[in-house]
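pasting LysR family transcriptional regulator for the record, 294 residues
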Amino acid sequence: MDKLASLRAFVNVVELRSFAEAGRKLRLSRSAVSKYVGELERDLGVQLLNRTTRQASPTETGQTYYERAVAVLADLDAADQAATQLQSTPRGLLRVNAPMSFGTIKLGPVLADFMERYPDLQIQLVLTDEQVDPVQEGLDVTLRIAELEPSSLIARKLVDIDRVVCASPGYFKKHGQPKQPADLRQHECLTYGFLSTGNQWKFTGPDGADHWIAPKWSLCVNNAEVLRDAAIKGRGIAVLPVFLAERELKSGALVTALDDYKPPQLTLYAIYAPTRHLSVKVRLFIDFLVERMR
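structre below
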């Protein structure tokens, strides 16, 4: 039995109340439509239609089945449309929001390569460390490095981001290196203002135990680049995303500490509004990010 053809035949008979009319719409004979519906009823073991010489109407079971069949066919049509869209060239305006530090350090080259691949797109990038409402701001894609709250928005994980405890060599020479997280209470610390844990730092030790520290901070700011620059100048110890400090770690401007104690990873998400037909430009951009970020 061709289940898909039988579903389409049944749905059209219900909507048109006639085998003949359904056949004309589907460009099939009345007998072919009747055969499809009959095969469907036999397969299910139930009667779906009440038949008279003038019209056909759904039974109670048939009405319930019809409603589900309509949804199934709509999903199939949407899948067909999405597959067709992926072969088309994306055009128009793509509005993207991203955190300031991540955008300036990592996103620029990615966007440039995406523009080269899809030259008919216009991209508007908004960089901010504030939490914005993608729907209210009219954004197509929002990139966030955060632990997400429950939301009706769709969030696709792109990549995990490691963090390190670090400071300048001069700071450690003057104040000594911490040997365990509790030692941080004796140091000047530089903290990020938007952590889900507030101004408490969490570390997981080599034995798997968690250590929570409320550091004595001398600087609290909502931009991690400022923390990095203050750490380079010897103002204290910071916990920084690796992507933000990798150049300074390689050059020796920053050195790590507490390497056996791991801060929680951060996660980069692509967030967008739910829609039955995700636009091709959004789909391609997110797939491109997944490809590049990994």
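The mean pLDDT is 87.
Residues 186 and 216 are 7 Å apart (CA to CA).
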